Amino acid sequence: MDSETRIVLIGPPGAGKGTQAKKLGDYYSVPHLSAGELLRSEVENETEAGKRAKPYLDQGQLVPVEIVVDIMVKNMFERSEHNGFVVDGFPRNPEQYERLTDYMEENNLSLDCAVDLVIPEEMVYRRLTGRRVCRECGANFHLEFRPPEQEGQCDDCGGELKQRDDDTRETIQERLEVFQNESKPVARKFERDGILAKVDATGDIDEVFEKITTTLEERLA
Ligand code: AP5
Asked: How remote is the CA of residue 107 from the centroid of ligand 1, in Å?
């Protein structure tokens, strides 16, 4: 596969967007860009955008469109030395979709596929309450499904593992409501564009990866 492949991953919190996007980025030799990670890094670096975004992240609400679109467009199209990418978590409401589509039309660009990861709500809680993330390199683990070799320590860099601040039951509930109300219509828009691929995201990480790559190979052939 060439480095011009452009894929976005959408779906509810905990569907496995970040996990699968990282694997797909390696598979297609393109950068993996996570909207959530880019925003958390702005917060960590205490940039102006990060200071404005923080309360939204803390409450599980969508960060205002002008902050997100600016960060994502820069990273997707203006900074990368590759022409392709795997993006997870963007666009996440109709306004973001319109802004992205307008930008791409103006610049004669297009997406190859929007992969919609589908999982039942009860699985979201199980995946997110057990998630642990490395403080140093951001690698993702799960107490039950992807445990680190040494408890509390990252397999990749030895950094300390922590729970994400927004992985409490209360904030997960809020994020699920935001997904239902704001993000679901985005899938319908990609469907109308003829680039939506729904993939069942139950099953283990490798099984889901296999389902996604099989679907993509049919679509991108
Ligand atoms: P973001 O970081 O994108 O969070 P999210 O969408 O809620 O998704 P998650 O990262 O929680 O889940 P995921 O689907 O990536 O699952 P993962 O692979 O980690 O966004 C956070 C916040 O940033 C938002 O609430 C919002 O405030 C803001 N934001 C982000 N994008 C925005 C935008 N576009 N506009 C405005 N605001 C925005 O997997 C979860 C766990 O399950 C892991 O532990 C993993 O190891 C495990 N796992 C994964 N797959 C499997 C599997 N198949 N089987 C077993 N375990 C699995």
From this structure: 29
How distant, in Å, are the alpha carbons of 129, 132, 170 from that of 141?
11, 5, 21
Q: What is the pLDDT along the chain (221 residues), one digit of tens a residue?
A: 556 899 999 999 999 999 999 999 999 999 999 999 999 999 999 999 999 999 999 999 999 999 999 999 999 988 777 789 999 999 999 999 999 999 999 999 999 999 999 999 999 999 999 999 999 998 999 999 999 999 999 999 999 999 999 999 999 999 999 999 999 999 999 999 999 999 999 999 999 999 999 999 998 87
Does the predicted model carry a pTM greater than 0.70? yes
Q: Hey, whose CA ends up nearest to atom 42 of ligand 1?
A: 127
For the chain, how many residues are written?
221
* Cis geometry, peptide bond prior to residue 91 (ω within 30 degrees of 0): yes
Phi, psi dihedral angles at 153 (to 5 degrees): -130, 135
CA-nearest of 120, 118, 121, 140 to 131 is 140
Evaluate: CB of 96 within 6 angstroms of ligand 1: yes
CA distance 206 to 102: 35
